[in-house]
Every structure is written in C-alpha cells, then in structure tokens.
Amino acid sequence: xxxxxxxxxxxxxxxxxxxxxxxxxxxxxxxxxxxxxxxxxxxxxxxxxxxxxxxxxxxxxxxxxxxxxxxxxxxxxxxxxxxxxxxxxxxxxxxxxxxxxxxxxxxxxxxxxxxxxxxxxxxxxxxxxxxxxxxxxxxxxxxxxxxxxxxxxxxxxxxxxxxxxxxxxxxxxxxxxxxxxxxxxxxxxxxxxxxxxxxxxxxxxxxxxxxxxxxxxxxxxxx
Length: 223
Prior knowledge:
Elements: E1 15-22, E2 31-38, E3 42-47, H1 54-61, E4 69-74, E5 77-78, H2 84-94, E6 95-98, H3 110-121, H4 125-138, H5 154-166, E7 172-176, H6 184-199, E8 203-207, H7 211-216, E9 219-222
Parallel strand pairs: 3-8, 3-9, 6-7, 7-8
Antiparallel strand pairs: 1-2, 1-4, 4-5
Pfam family, one: ABC_tran
Keywords: ATP-binding, Nucleotide-binding
Domain ABC transporter: 15-223
C-alpha cells in the first residue's frame, strides 16, 4: 500500500456486520438483521430516508453501540462479547469518526481537539501535536492552533474535525453527514479528502442524504 503524507492509514483492516439488530428502549428494531462487508480501499455510502437508522448503524459499526443481536467484526474478529474497556481500546486503535456538526470541545484549543484521540490511545503528546499540525496545514486551516472552536467558521470546524479523525491514521473512517451543513467549496474539499483516504487503503463509510456524495462513493447501500 502506498503512503500518502500526513494522514494515510497505518495498516489495513476489514469491517463487517453480521445479522446486526438494534432497538432503543424496547421499541421496534431500528436496525434488523443487517449484514454488509467493507474492505480496504473502498468508500461506501449509507443512504435512505430519515429515521431508517443510518446514524444508529454507523454507531454500531464504530462500536459506540452494542447490537441486541448479531455482531460487528473488525478485521475478522467478533466484537460483541468484548468488555467495554476492550471495545474502547479497539475503537481507539481502529476507528476515526467525523460528525455532521464537527462536535469540537468548545473549551479546548484547536490543536487539543485534534490530538485528543491520539492521546487517549496513549501516543506521545509531541508526536501527536506534530501530526495534528501537519494535518491542519494539509487541510488549509490557517489559524493559530491555540484558538478556541467558538472563534471559527463551520467550514473550518469540519476541516479540524477531519484532522482529528485522521490524526491516529486509523484503518477505518466513519463519517455521519460530513457535508450536511457545508458550503460547496468545503463540501468538495471534504469529499476529496474522504476519497483520498479510501484510495490510500482505508475503509471509509459515509452516512449521507446527498445524492451527489453517494455518487462519488464506490458503492451505495440503501436502508
């Protein structure tokens, strides 16, 4: 696998869902016996009407929710019976996340927001900051790294969130409506960054309502 400077996956992993079901508070299942496989080098769009469970499914794939039945396999290994601590460790090692609203911590500096996943994983603080600043530079964030998120635009915030997702060079990148509130220029930037990450060997899964974004993916799975 060829390496792309400043944010290519360190390694390749597969991701799969096997007959996954999930319901909130004993209601009807929002996800029911759903299966799919995701391979390195591919970008997949999860699409469908609101309320069909797209975001829930993404959180199941990312080990943030535990399925009621079925299992999520990371690099062929079932995750359902792992303890919460082991699931958290696997999540930190294998996944990067991008959310629609960027979900930055308003009380922390930009560079602290970016490096948080790396420090949680136990990476060296100085090296994490170097990677974070390299990503911010690559993604055109021309701002003091000690600035707070409340002082930036929505487009800048999403570029920072993308830097945060990639700072650990995760094998798997999950994005929930990453272009939902962005202007056309930033939308194109984010889409290209996601596609580049897939081409560099990552597994990229994107929840989206955008027909244009879905068309840029390698495949589309409708819920």
